[in-house]
TrEMBL record:
PDZ domain: residues covered: 124-153
Gene: rseP
Organism: Kineothrix sedimenti
InterPro entries attached to this UniProt entry: PDZ, PDZ_6, PDZ_sf, Pept_M50_Zn, Peptidase_M50
Main location (coarse class): membrane
UniProt cross-references to NCBIfam families, sorted A to Z: RIP metalloprotease RseP
Stretches that traverse the bilayer: 93-117, 272-293, 322-341
Protein name in the entry: Zinc metalloprotease
UniProt keyword annotations, A-Z: Hydrolase, Membrane, Metal-binding, Metalloprotease, Protease, Transmembrane, Transmembrane helix, Zinc
C-alpha cells in the first residue's frame, strides 16, 4: 500500500508539472517531442500527433522535451518553425515557468478540497502551559493571534511552525481578546529535556467549517503556509541549521507516506485520503519552489538564461549555456545519489 500511495502521489505531482510545460508549449506553437513520466528506460510508449507519450521505469521525475530546446538549429542553420528556438523569448519563458506554476495550482486545488470538507484551523489559543512563556507574557486561552514579528497569522499551524523553528529569540505577538487589540513580547523558555525552546502554547487551534468564500480564502492561506514553510526550511538548509538527516529523497518520502498511512488508517478512508492530499500539497509546493531556484538544469536556471536574453536582446551562445546546464545536471545527479544513500542508511539504522 505504501508503494501504491507513493506512486499515486508522485505521479500526480509529476504529471501536473510536465502538463504545465506541455500546455503552454502547445499554446505558444512549440512542438513537444516527448511527454515522459518517470526516468530511465522506457516501459511503454505511444505516439499521437507529433508527440511521443512514454512511461519510464523509475517514477521519480518526468520530462516535457521541446523540439530544439537543446539550442541546435536545423542543418541549414535556420530555426525550424514550431521549434523552441523559433518561439519568442516570452513564449519560451512562459512555457518553462508553467511547470512550477502548475505545481502551485495543483496544491491550491487540493487545498480547496481539503478545506471544503474539513475546514481550517484559526490561530485561537486553546490552552496555556502553566508557568510557560505565553502565560508570563500575559496571554490567555481564547486569544486570537494576528501577527508574530510582523508576519500575519491566519492558521494556528503558522504559530506551531514559528515555535518549532525558534532558537530563543523574542517574539513580538499581536492578538485580539474580547474585541480589543494587544501586543506583547514573549521570551521562549528552553526545555533541556526536549532540547528546544517552547512558547508555552498547547492545542491545535480552533477548527471551524468554512463557508463558500472562506473555502477559497483559507485554501490560499494553506498554500501560503506551505510556501513559507518551504522557504524557511531552505533558509535553514543553506545556513546549516539542518543536517543531512533532516533531508528526504524518494525512499524517505515513501517511508513518510507509509508511516502516515499506518497512523491514520484506523480512522477510515477519508482520513487516509486527506492525509495523502496534505502530503501531496507539501511535495507539490516543494517541487514548484525547487524548480524555480536559479540553479543550472532546473527550470529556474533555464529562466535565468531566457531573462538575460530578454534583457540584452540576444541569447547566450547555446554551447555556453549547454555547458552550464550539463555541470548543473551532474551536480544534481550527485546530490540525488547522496540523498538516496542517506535514505537507505536511515532504513537500517
Amino acid at each position: 500500500m505504501t508503494i501504491i500511495l507513493f506512486l499515486i502521489i508522485f505521479g500526480i505531482i509529476v504529471i501536473s508539472h510536465e502538463l504545465g510545460h506541455f500546455l503552454l508549449a502547445k499554446k505558444n506553437g512549440i512542438r513537444v517531442v516527448e511527454f515522459a513520466i518517470g526516468m530511465g528506460p522506457t516501459l511503454f510508449h505511444f505516439k499521437r500527433g507529433e508527440t511521443v507519450y512514454s512511461l519510464k521505469i523509475f517514477p521519480i521525475g518526468g520530462a516535457c522535451i521541446f523540439d530544439g530546446e537543446d539550442g541546435v538549429k536545423s542543418e541549414n542553420g535556420e530555426k525550424d518553425e514550431g521549434s523552441f528556438l523559433s518561439a519568442s523569448v516570452w513564449a519560451r519563458i512562459s512555457s518553462v515557468a508553467a511547470g512550477p506554476l502548475f505545481n502551485f495550482l495543483l496544491a491550491f486545488l487540493l487545498a480547496l478540497i481539503i478545506v471544503a470538507f474539513t475546514g481550517s484551523d484559526r490561530p485561537v489559543i486553546q490552552e496555556i502551559t502553566p508557568g510557560g512563556a505565553a502565560q508570563t507574557a500575559g496571554m490567555e486561552a481564547g486569544d486570537l493571534i494576528t501577527k508574530i514579528n510582523g508576519e500575519k497569522i491566519h492558521l494556528y499551524r503558522q504559530v506551531n511552525l514559528i515555535s518549532a523553528l525558534n532558537h530563543g529569540e523574542d517574539l513580538n505577538i499581536d492578538f485580539v481578546r474580547d474585541g480589543e487589540k494587544y501586543s506583547v513580547t514573549l521570551t521562549p523558555i528552553y526545555d533541556s529535556s526536549a532540547g528546544r525552546y517552547y512558547i508555552g502554547l498547547t492545542g491545535a487551534g480552533e477548527y471551524f467549517k468554512c463557508n463558500a468564500l472562506q473555502v477559497f480564502q483559507y485554501s490560499y492561506y494553506e498554500l501560503e503556509y506551505w510556501v513559507r514553510a518551504t522557504f524557511k526550511s531552505l533558509g535553514m538548509l543553506f545556513t546549516g541549521q539542518v543536517t543531512k538527516d533532516d533531508m528526504a529523497g524518494p525512499v524517505g518520502i515513501a517511508q513518510i507516506v507509509g508511516e502516515t498511512y499506518e497512523e491514520v488508517k484506523p480512522y477510515g478512508i477519508s482520513s487516509v485520503v486527506f492525509s495523502m492530499m496534505n502530503i501531496a500539497i507539501l511535495l507539490s509546493v516543494n517541487l514548484g519552489i525547487l524548480n524555480l531556484l536559479p540553479f543550472p538544469a532546473l527550470d529556474g536556471g533555464r529562466l535565468v538564461f531566457l531573462l538575460i536574453e530578454a534583457i540584452r536582446g540576444k541569447p547566450v551562445p547555446p554551447e555556453k549555456e549547454g555547458i552550464v546546464h550539463l555541470a548543473g545536471m551532474a551536480a544534481l545527479m550527485i546530490l540525488m545519489v547522496f540523498v538516496l544513500f542517506n535514505d537507505i542508511s536511515r532504513l537500517f539504522s
